[in-house]
Input
Amino acid sequence: MKILVIKFRNIGDVLLTTPLIKNLKMNFPEAQIDVAVNKGTEAMLKGNPNINRIYSYNRSYYKSLPKLKRFIEEYKFLKSFKNYDMVINTTEGDRGAFIAKFSDAKIKIGYKVNKNIMLKKAFNFIMPKPLLMRHIIENNLDALRIINKDIYEKKVEIFWSNEDIEKVKKLIPDNFIHIHPVSRWLFKCIDDKIMANIIDFLYEKGQKVVITASPDKKEIEKVNKILSYCKNKPINLSGKLSLNQVAYLSSRAKLFIGVDTAVMHMAAAVDTPVVAFFGPSGAFNWGPWDNELFESGYTKKSGIQTMGKHTVIQHDWDCIPCGKDGCNGSKVSECLMQFDMEKIFNIIEEKL
Output
């Protein structure tokens, strides 16, 4: 049996499909499971023993082509997935629906397509429309529920190589705290001085800190600004590690502190306790998942919430979560610019 899972979304979204992939393998142990994702997100599935092949969709490449050539090349890509027995599209996007429509699969699972007449019959098993206050992991697992298959576990998984281990081991101390203070979406970041205060608080408590960020110029600049406010200087590995190496680094940490980003999900996936700051996003959708639990602990609209070993720090303002990229088009989320520092320090100290 050949199964294709489609997730044309961002890095964190792809990582959170791994419980679905694992349960597919447990329900269909002899199946070959392939996955189609956006280019740049493949690292979340690299080395996963439940996956046979990863296909990447290079959005930037197709966008760079003249219109006619782009149409022809994308059409070829979408039609190249014919020989599958089951196709699962885990998002509401048209590309996954086109793949399902062109496929010869007898089982086609996905969300109902309303806007494109061509795709209204792309699927013969329709997943329920995602509920607002429900974790993304549960939404993904609906693909199995709709065909009456069992959910055996809900663990998020990420893997790394021996080479990754050897590189990271040379760079990190024993018994440290991992801080990843940035997101590619800067409106998800807390105030720089607040993050600097957290770093200094940890050093006052005798802790060692390792800080990471992607090689992106804006992220590096933000880390440097945070460090300029610090009295103490943590080990700064920003821009020096791959995503899988960062995952291994998190697995060695005693605690992860960061914002709503893929690296937060990676830390939770390796069972490191997480303290995460949330602003515009809802923890009920995107909170760090505790692999030891079977049900989400994020039952409130906003506010401080926990799921097992993980804690989300978020104001309980009426406007939260808004889902916007900052307040009034500013690209800055006011709800992440001010916190009760004593309350934050108490939450962190409880996890040390």
Notes: The longest helix spans residues 192-204. The first strand starts at residue 2 and ends at 7.
